[in-house]
Amino acid sequence: MGAARAAGALSRRLGAGAGRTISGAVFLALASAPEAARVAASRRTVLVSGTNGKTTTTTLIATAAAALTTVASNSTGANLAAGVFGAIVDDPHAELAVLEVDELLLGDMIDRFDPEVIVLLNLSRDQLDRSHEVMQTARSWEPHLRRFRGVIVANADDPLIVWAVRDAADVVWVAGGRHWIADASACLDCGAQLIVDEAGSWGCGGCGRSRPATTAMTVPPTGLPGRCNEANASMACAALHELGLEQGAAEWLHVTGVAGRYEQRTIEGRDVRVLLAKNPAGWLETFDVLDSDSDLVFSLNAHAVDGLDPSWIWDVPFERLAPRPVVCAGERAVDLAVRLRHAGLDVRLVSDLRVGIGSCTRKVDLVANYSAFRDVLDRMVPACATAQS
């Protein structure tokens, strides 16, 4: 483990990043199977997974828990195996680990860590060339969750989550929200159409499977905007209750940004708020927090971390924003501009994001998918002081 920590420290010293992923990668390369198992099992652990909201929910749980105990967490979003183990390597003596886990790795991480609590947020299409059919993800989870004997905090509003945990031993159902319904329109048991009412509750017209009743709770406020973050806070609150650490949630008022999301930056003389939207469900939730008094700049890439297929933009209901003007940037700006023009928006295409931001006349809401979002955080000016955000 010493070599792994040294690699992470060197990475930070060279300015190559936080060092968490490299420290985890070195540990996994050098550790024997018994040592890796010992490290994984040496503390209480919470795993957080789903398509959207992992980093925010992980941050909320870790922030609250850190007020009461020592915490190791990968709440900056490094959710593959190296990032997950890197969090443990960097904080080997922490009493609690709060770990965000990529949905395709969840089964393996359950087996490795034997967590006390698992938080399951939602499932929707994402990285189409990598994840493929989202129902298959639910099916891949199901046997691991059936064998699991800890507590599962599950989103009752998502039929795919409900199906995946149907035979789990101990489930706490939470009203975790589901405003994007296109990826769970049919019952996984019988194939019949799901019926969704105006309140968002759902049921199967064939076999009768329906939304479970949820646990009532009082959720402390956060400093984060939007209905999606209210839902994330509900999931985090339920997890903290299971851990006996819910009193730490008073710290959430100080959480005004999550790994760069919602942060205010000054770029090309403009006040810019940076938002992440990486798939149709994420874009739909982002619409809820866009400021009507802001200029809009959208940036789209298609790297491996984004998914190489950006055709999902045609599923996003951009028509809801028409006829607002939008500046389009990024490596797939043309694809995005074509989609937005079909949606009735007033589109201006730019080859350079800085130029696009500089051309705006008001404060800016900048919405970017993952690699474009990282470009802003890594290559542009640092975030403004908290007092300005």
Give a description of the structure.
The chain has helices at 2-13, 20-30, 33-40, 54-66, 81-90, 106-113, 128-131, 134-147, 159-164, 227-243, 280-287, 333-342, 353-358, 370-379, and strands at residues 44-49, 71-73, 96-100, 117-120, 151-155, 171-174, 194-196, 202-204, 264-267, 270-276, 295-299, 325-329, 346-349, 364-368. It is α/β, with parallel strands linked by helices. β9 (264-267) and β10 (270-276) form a beta hairpin. α2 crosses α5. The longest helix is centred in the middle third of the chain and has 17 residues, at 227-243.
User: Under CATH, the topology of the largest domain is which?
Assistant: UDP-N-acetylmuramoyl-L-alanine:D-glutamate ligase
The CATH fourth-level homologous superfamily of the largest domain: Mur-like, catalytic domain
- The tally of domains stands at 2
Strands of the biggest beta sheet: in what spatial order? 2-3-1-4-5-6
Q: Can you count the helices? A: 14
Spatial extent as radius of gyration: 21 Å
CATH architecture verdict of the largest domain: 3-Layer(aba) Sandwich
Helix-strand string: HHHEHEHEHEHHEHEEEHEEHEEHEHEH
Decide which structural class fits the backbone.
Answer: alpha/beta
Q: Report the strand count.
A: 14
Fraction in helix = 25-40%
Q: What proportion of the residues form beta strands (DSSP E)?
A: 15-25%
- Give the end-to-end Cα distance, rounded to a whole number of Å: 38 Å
CATH class membership of the largest domain: Alpha Beta
Average pLDDT, rounded to a whole number, is 91
Dominant shape: globular
Which residues sit in consecutive blocks of at least 5 with pLDDT less than 50? Answer: 385-389
Described by strand count, sense and barrel closure, the largest sheet is: 6 strands, parallel
